[in-house]
Design brief:
Residues 450-477 form a coiled coil. The chain has helices at residues 3-19, 26-31, 37-44, 49-62, 68-77, 81-93, 108-123, 127-144, 150-173, 184-191, 199-216, 221-232, 242-262, 265-283, 290-308, 324-339, 341-346, 349-365, 369-386, 389-484. The protein is mainly alpha-helical.
Length: 491
């Protein structure tokens, strides 16, 4: 037992002496190969319970293969839950001064590579190979479990735990809501006494369970985040690594759901910070395998691209404003991913869906609906290939949106053409009408002139008739006057 655990036991020593009877706990420790038969016989030979408790505490602090988690499980499984809880609380209060735990001792590098291999299988849609690898690890554990070979058992348990963790992720990828109701979390719990490290497995079990809770019921977001916070409490005991980065990544996904519901700008900034923290944690794995870091970095950058472009979980478009700066950053992330040739070649089916979904959205925001449709169709192909039901639905919805927008644009252009043609026809009609009106005015003017001439002629005729009448009258008068003055001589 390590020194910090001994400090914790000294703090709870009196309460344990007053309440614990080792007779009920030793069988559990014997079963998991911590106590041997001689130790059990020695404890049973002690007559008084208090003395047995003192000897028990003395023995466990001297045993190299005893861990605090083993003691916690032994107490919890044998009716001493209140003592187990006291032990947990006392351990937690001392966390700030505890030494960072070693990471799965000498198996660490092999475990990192193995776990990443399983991840790539599930994200590439190779479900058959993934399941074969999982059941291989499970079968190996069953063979070694009761072998009594401690080193071999530690290794088999570690690999099986990582396979169980990968199974949780796989169920999430295919969105199987039954995960919470399977026995996978019980299997994780039962493996704890056999693992070569205490805190990291418990951290992963907590965060995976929280993820399963949320997948089963999206209204349980606060409950799920509670499990994430419990998992993050282990960060004080664990070096930054692939697994701590995964905890941050799962927290990111959960908060993405909250952001989709609230669209709070402050939450967007928080998500950006969590993503950058996760990249820093994944960077530690360069020591074991650089491709692990590069793959995870690519994954997080794609997540950030979706955030910047207003894309929610499974490709759902969010009703948010996407700034020019957001588009510029997202375009930069996508370009860097495409230009990193080795990383691009390694990109799994699920992340190709993610890449082309972001690419399509970028074109859509620029009203280039032809390219938006082109890249959405590519994304849909990869989602279908991987049998990712939620992603398939998201891409189909996006495709419908872009097809409808393109149809509406075409209808608008057609209508605009009709209006333009109609306007041209109307202009011609107006020109003819103006000419007609001009001719009509000229005719009216001419008619008015003709009428004036006719009136003038009429008046002239009337004047002529009057003159003729006057001339006639004048002649008649002269004639009468001439007849009256004829001389008599001529009569």
């Amino acid at each position: 037992m390590d020194e910090q655990s001994k400090v914790v036991l000294r703090k709870v020593h009196r309460i344990f002496i007053e309440n614990l009877d080792p007779n009920y706990v030793m069988d559990f420790l014997y079963k998991i190969d911590v106590f041997n038969a001689n130790i059990c016989m020695k404890l049973r030979s002690i007559e008084f319970r208090g003395d047995r408790a003192r000897m028990f505490l003395f023995l466990v602090t001297k045993m190299d293969n005893m861990t605090m988690d083993m003691l916690y499980e032994a107490l919890r499984s044998t009716g001493y839950g209140f003592l187990a809880e006291l032990l947990r609380q006392t351990s937690y209060s001392s966390a700030s001064v505890q030494r960072k735990a070693e990471l799965f001792s000498k198996f660490r590098k092999k475990l990192v590579v193995y776990r990443h291999y399983l991840k790539r299988l599930s994200h590439s849609g190779d479900h058959v190979t993934f399941e074969e690898e999982f059941f291989k690890a499970e079968q190996n554990w069953k063979i070694v479990e009761n072998s009594g070979l401690s080193n071999k058992r530690f290794k088999a348990a570690d690999f099986y735990f990582f396979a169980l963790d990968a199974w949780c992720e796989y169920m999430r990828v295919i969105y199987d809501k039954n995960l919470m109701y399977t026995d996978v979390f019980d299997k994780m719990e039962n493996l704890k006494p056999y693992l070569s490290e205490e805190n990291l497995p418990e951290m992963m079990r907590l965060v995976r369970y929280g993820s399963a809770v949320l997948m089963t019921n999206k209204d349980e977001l606060n409950t799920a985040l509670g499990y994430v916070n419990d998992a993050k409490s282990k960060f004080d005991l664990i070096h930054a690594c692939r697994e701590t980065g995964t905890v941050l990544y799962i927290e990111y996904n959960m908060l993405c759901q909250k952001y989709a519901e609230t669209l709070e700008p402050g939450l967007k900034e928080q998500l950006n910070n969590i993503a950058n923290q996760a990249i820093e944690h994944f960077a530690v794995e360069i020591e074991f395998d650089e491709t692990v870091y590069l793959d995870f970095k690519r994954m997080v950058l794609l997540k950030l691209s979706h955030l910047l472009l207003g894309i929610g979980m499974f490709g759902v478009y969010l009703d948010v404003s996407v700034t020019t700066e957001d588009k510029r950053k997202a375009k930069g992330f996508l370009r860097s991913i495409k230009e990193t040739k080795e990383s691009w070649k390694r990109m799994e089916t699920r992340w190709k869906w993610s890449y082309y979904t972001a690419k399509a959205r970028h074109f859509g925001l620029d009203y280039d609906f032809s390219n938006a449709i082109k890249y959405t169709e590519k994304a849909l192909c990869y989602a279908t290939k991987g049998e990712y039901s939620k992603e398939i639905l998201g891409s189909q919805n996006a495709l419908n949106i872009y097809n409808n927008l393109r149809k509406r644009i075409k209808e608008f252009h057609d209508h605009e053409y009709e209006i333009s043609t109609s306007c041209n026809d109307n202009e011609e009609d107006s020109r003819i009408q103006r000419q007609f009106d001009q001719v009509e005015c000229e005719i009216d003017y001419s008619l008015r002139n003709l009428e004036m001439i006719e009136n003038e002629i009429k008046h002239s005729k009337e004047r002529l008739l009057k003159l003729r009448e006057k001339v006639k009258q004048s002649r008649n008068q002269r004639y009468k006057d001439g007849c009256q003055f004829i001389p008599e001589s001529k009569l």
